[in-house]
Structures are given as structure tokens and as C-alpha cells.
Amino acid sequence: MRTIEIEVIGKGKAQAELDERNPKIAAAFWQALPIEARASLWGEEVYFDIPLQREDENPSPSATAGDICYWSPGPAFCIFFGMTQPYSPVNHLGKVVEGLELFRDVAAGDRIVLSRK
After folding, report:
1. Which 8-state DSSP code applies to residue 103?
2. Contact in structure between 66 and 51 (CB atoms under 8 Å)
3. Residue 42's domain is classified under what CATH number?
4. Dist. CA 1–CA 68, nearest whole Å
5. pTM above the 0.70 mark?
6. Which range of residues forms the domain containing residue 60?
7. Are 73 and 47 in contact (CB under 8 A)?
8. Domain total for the chain?
């Protein structure tokens, strides 16, 4: 299992595991790590632009708390931590398995670093 660390600088860390729902995008995302960005918020979702331009693979119109996803129009990385649904279809990459509550404290502009664990 490929595990990533999601660090919100000055606030804490979470861990997520990549799955095989969108294997081509997940592999490209893994190769692009580490990534550093500034957080944006939309409802109960943290998202930010990432340097990965990929076509949709198996997009889904819905998400559940803990889902991490790739949104091709951004392109952006999305972390769903509550009831908010995607603005448009997303490609699921995996799930936050530790530290999901961290994202309730994220503010717009917070620095976030994604890295291989």
C-alpha cells in the first residue's frame, strides 16, 4: 500500500493510503510527490492546485468524508472531511486513514506538504 503524509505546516499531520480506483492517476500522483501548496476551502473540503495534468480516468460525482481525490479541471488535489460533495466529478485516489480531524482547522492560505511516507 502506498501511504502519503499530508502535513499542514504548524498544525499537524495526517496519513492517507492510495488505492486502485484510478490507478493511472494514482501512479502519476505518486511520482509527482513531494508537492507543496496553499490551501483553499470549499465547504468541508480542502483543495489546492497541483502540478499534474491528467485526463479523467474513472470520475465519480460523489465523495465521502476521508476521500482524497484528483480534480482534473484544476488540476487540484481534494481532501473531503465532511458532507461537502464535489463541484464536478473527481477521480478518487484513496482515503485519509489517520488525522482526518486536522482538516477542520485548516484555513485558506495554510501551507500543505504532500510527501511519500
Report:
1. G
2. no
3. 2.40.100.20
4. 15
5. yes
6. 3-116
7. no
8. 1
